[in-house]
What does this fold into?
Amino acid sequence: MRGEFSSAMTEQPYKTLEWMGDCLSGHLRLLDQTVLPLEVVFLDCQDVKSVWDAIKRLSVRGAPAIGVSAAYGVIVGLQSSADVQRPQFNEKLTVVTDYLATSRPTAVNLFWALDRMKAFANQHPDLTSRELLQQLLEEAQRIDREDQQMCLAIGQNGAALLPDECSVLTHCNAGGLATAGDGTALSVFFAANRQGKNLHVYADETRPLLQGARLTSWELQQRDIPVTVICDSVAGWAMKQGRIQAIVTGADRIAGNGDAANKIGTYSVAQLAKVHNIPFYVAAPSSTFDLSLASGDDIPIEERSRDEIAHGFGQQTVPDGVDVFNPAFDVTPSELITAIITERGVIQEINTSSIADHLQTAAT
Ligand code: MRU
It folds into this structure.
């Protein structure tokens, strides 16, 4: 299914992900991010393999969006089991969640959402399989709606940190395309813009898959926020020239001490920010924290295929036989992070106890 491009607007023009229909025969509709910004194409995922494939090849990407999609993936994976006995249904649930968990390793939101679906099933042993399937769909829809609310709150909480007039830098895409709502880092920009702040965004192109050039610039353009795309290697020079007053990125997993995994290149940006005395903010919902990990050293880092670098976008750029190292994420140590913005507020002094305390507080 294809959509039409539209002119500037204040809301995201297309849904990144959407459940269509009922629990027994419905499906997950995804905006295929691999073909943006040139085409708007929707993928209808009718079975769990198509959800797994979509996550793996980055048709849907960004930590929160992966989590919400996986929750809906559980539903399509269980539809054929609606009439089996509960023990078999429970076994199938384990098979489906274990399978979805193998799609990508770094974003903890994936495992968080799958755990939440499993926990919901365990808390309702008396339901029939059919009743549980219906209620699991409602749980997935709650995860979806909560993510939208978290995005809005992150935006509000983060916008207060930005000056009335500023140029900001972001890396990768932490926008509406990466969540079920308005995004995390980009939600901060959208909220600042709504508050009348005069914002200009520099978007790192984000090698090798160009989430910044293809997706962030597209989203900002759609929402009428001035944006300039730069090669990743320009970021330091732009900082040196005084073009950037703040940096806001998303995160895929934040360890208990505040070390934050995000798209490869984020660590370099954070180091450059430190050298140039520019605040470096991480915006993420509480579902991105992994308190089971004491530090970022234990965050699993996805390595992706050689082809993404050697044959990016259909063009060979590396000689045959030459080795490529393609980690998809890096970890920024908490010392380099000025503050972490969540839906609950802002963590200014980042350490294990301030993070634990923050995650106990109610959302703002
Ligand atoms: O490989 P991707 O495109 O899924 O990487 C996404 C990012 O690194 C985002 O910055 C992160 O998931 C935060 S999204 C709100």
